[in-house]
Amino acid sequence: MKNNFTPRIGIIVIVIFLVVAALLMVSNRNKTTTITSSASGSPKSNSTLAAKAESLGNIGEYYDGTKSATATSSATPAPTPGSIKQYTFPSSVTKSSAAKKLELETTAPVDEVTEWYKEKIRSLGFNAKSFSQTTTNGEILNKLSAAKPGEKIDITIKNDQTTSKVLITVDRS
Questions:
Q1: 144 with 155: CB under 8 angstroms?
Q2: Whole-model pTM?
Q3: Residues paired with 100 in a beta bridge
Q4: What's phi and psi for 32, nearest 5 deg?
Q5: Domain assignment of residue 167, given as a range
Q6: 56/24 same-domain check
Q7: Number of Cβ atoms within 10 Å of the Cβ of 118
Q8: Which of 147, 146, 144, 166 minimizes the C-alpha distance to 155?
Q9: Are residues 31 and 89 in the same domain?
Q10: pLDDT value at position 25?
Q11: How many domains does the chain fold into?
Q12: What is the per-residue pLDDT for 34?
């Protein structure tokens, strides 16, 4: 018995599967009816949920076969972040400053500096936060990362035991 399955047939099957899946996604995008049950037991349409479902349906826009899928959103654009200078710790000295990077030095205690940056991150409305505090052989290294639409911030706070100063690096992307 001869094996009729070739790699070419496998590729054709995969392409057909992807085309069918894309067609199903496009056809299901227009079917965003949401039904909830009221106290009387009769179903009613919930326009708020339907609107949310409709906005989610716009995630994949497909063009002709030569272009790939692109994500679109009907949400308002992310706000433009303020100046990097807003991350300057009070009583610190600026060692270097660029549009997206700030290097500072202070004599304030590491814990005070770390708490100030944590509060700064909270006050600026960052919704994804990561704080890591490490002490090894008396050397302290704290890393704070946070993100929100349109801005990601990474802050490194490190004590310099040789000079008794705290070094702060702020990177924004």
A1: yes
A2: 0.55
A3: none
A4: -115, 50
A5: 84-172
A6: yes
A7: 16
A8: 144
A9: no
A10: 72
A11: 2
A12: 40
Segments in the chain below pLDDT 70: 1-5, 26-80
Same domain, yes or no: 162 and 100: yes
pLDDT of 43: 44
Q: Is 94 among the domain residues?
A: yes
Tell me the C-alpha distance between 15 and 21, whole Å: 10
Q: Which residue has 């690096």 as its token pair?
A: 169
For 171, residues 6+ apart whose C-beta sits below 8 A from its C-beta are: 100, 101, 153, 154, 155, 156
Tokens of 106: 């202070």
Considering the domain architecture, whether residues 54 and 113 belong to the same structural domain is answered as no
Q: Is residue 22 part of a domain?
A: yes
Q: Among 15, 44, 71, which residue terminates a domain?
A: 71
pLDDT at 1: 53
Query: What is residue 18's DSSP assignment?
Result: H
H or E stretch including 115?
helix 110-123
Q: What is the largest CA-CA distance in the chain?
A: 84
Cα 53 to Cα 51: distance, rounded to the nearest angstrom: 5
